[in-house]
Design a protein that fits this description.
Largest sheet: none
CATH architecture: Up-down Bundle
Number of helices: 16
Strand content: under 5%
Order of helices and strands: HHHHHHHHHHHHHHHH
Number of strands: 0
Structural class: mainly alpha
CATH superfamily: MFS general substrate transporter like domains
Distance between the termini: 43 Å
Number of domains: 1
Shape: globular
């Protein structure tokens, strides 16, 4: 009974196909991400360059995700997603060939990371919005989003562990090659889907007006924009902790690539536990209160982990970090997706991608620079304190269970305005 409730989104065939293909692809993605960070740290031994690596991979999402949201709303999301997956496959192949050649620099790897980040700016809005179309019963949408997070964090558990082993035995190039092969799975799953025929929306507005309307919608819908602002702050100050894990693996725990893979996988254990917890929640659960509690938990985990230098003692607190982090980002996504009007879905998700992926690279630069001056443990501690402060700052709003009536009226008015101009 519990399993049936937890997996209820799998009743939709298209979602089952998507989940199976994307699961394999994400394992490859985490293998590549882990290998890139380790490769860069081995080349440079610089905390700042590690931050710059995260910046290069994710800042294009900050720049282009809004445009990606407009593309998602104006064009066939299925075709956009198919194209971005093929482009990601090509990027992985180019990276593999470069590293296999033996003639490469950190800056070439950073450039290819920028390319992948630009692709993701168009991929994320299309992929997130298409999940809505994949789920036949819209009541299963929150469950589908939670299962998506389970998939991401299961990949985060498996991918870095495999990457650590592959890095140790065969090197980074094989990690990149395996990632390239993994895209075949998701492309195949997309080709086997049977989605309703695409109906091009009739529009009387241009892309610039669409961008403006998306911003106005967010401004006048505080139930969404408040969650978005909280997510942006967490992404800026808290989530870049992942940038410092290579330093912990090599300098603090005196380990190798396998240790770095282990640390990432431990985060994945906690995140997977959080995803299963969220997928098992009953409909109508107070997600805002859970968001408040788990953001505090995230901060506490960062604080407790920060100054431990024995790996076995640090492991439980890194699990707590993964659990709290996953809950924070997934509940934010769920709240936004369930409240947004369909006509604005792509643009709002692009703002979500901007808040989630776009703030992290800026934060990674800040965290990398700060760590190079005061060290990774003190930086981790500061991040934990800031995370708890963010939870307390938004606490009064998150304790409100019901949507305010004035907010509901604004949403209704904007939906009517959207219908008139579409």
């Amino acid at each position: 009974m519990i399993i049936t409730k937890t997996l209820r989104a799998f009743q939709s065939r298209n979602y089952r196909l998507y989940f199976s293909g994307q699961s394999l692809s994400l394992i490859g993605t985490w293998m590549q991400r882990t290998a890139v960070y380790w490769l860069i740290y081995e080349l440079t031994s610089s905390a700042f360059i590690l931050g710059l690596t995260a910046f290069a991979a994710q800042f294009p999402s900050f720049l282009f995700s809004i445009i990606g949201g407009v593309v998602s709303d104006r064009f066939n999301r299925y075709k956009v997603l198919l194209l971005t997956q093929i482009a990601s496959l090509v990027q992985a192949i180019i990276l593999t060939v470069l590293i296999m050649s033996g003639h490469y620099t950190a800056w070439q790897v950073l450039f290819l990371s920028v390319v992948l980040g630009t692709i993701n700016a168009f991929d994320v809005p299309a992929r997130q919005a298409l999940v809505y179309d994949m789920v036949d019963n819209k009541e299963h949408l929150p469950n589908a989003i939670a299962l998506n997070s389970s998939m991401v964090h299961l990949a985060r558990l498996i991918g870095p562990a495999l990457s650590g082993l592959v890095l140790h035995q065969w090197g980074a190039a094989i990690c990149f090659l395996l990632n390239g092969c993994s895209f075949i799975a998701v492309i195949t799953s997309l080709l086997f889907m049977k989605l309703p025929p695409y109906k091009k929306p009739e529009r009387v507005t241009n892309a610039i007006t669409d961008l403006k309307n998306g911003f106005i919608y967010l401004k006048n819908t505080p139930s969404i924009s408040t969650i978005m602002l909280m997510l942006a702050l967490v992404s800026l100050f808290s989530l870049p902790y992942i940038t410092l894990l290579p330093i912990y693996a090599k300098e603090i725990f005196h380990g190798k690539a396998t240790t770095f893979g282990y640390l990432n996988s431990i985060v994945g254990v906690g995140a997977l536990g959080g995803a299963i917890f969220l997928a098992s929640l009953n409909p109508g659960a107070n997600l805002k209160r859970i968001l408040f509690n788990n953001t505090l938990l995230f901060g506490a985990g960062l604080i407790l982990f920060s100054h431990l230098d024995i790996l076995s003692y640090a492991t439980p607190f890194l699990i707590i970090v993964g659990f709290g982090m996953m809950s924070q980002t997934t509940i934010s996504n769920t709240l936004i997706q369930t409240m947004v009007t369909p006509a604005m879905r792509g643009r709002v998700i692009s703002y979500y991608a901007m808040a989630f992926f776009g703030m992290q690279p800026i934060g990674a630069l800040l965290i990398g620079a700060l760590s190079s001056h005061i060290g990774a443990p003190k930086t981790f501690l500061i991040q934990g304190i800031i995370t708890c402060m963010i939870a307390l700052l938004f606490g009064p709003y998150l304790r409100q269970r019901a949507l305010k009536q004035t907010d509901k009226m604004k949403i209704g008015q904007l939906e009517e305005r959207t219908v008139e101009t579409s």
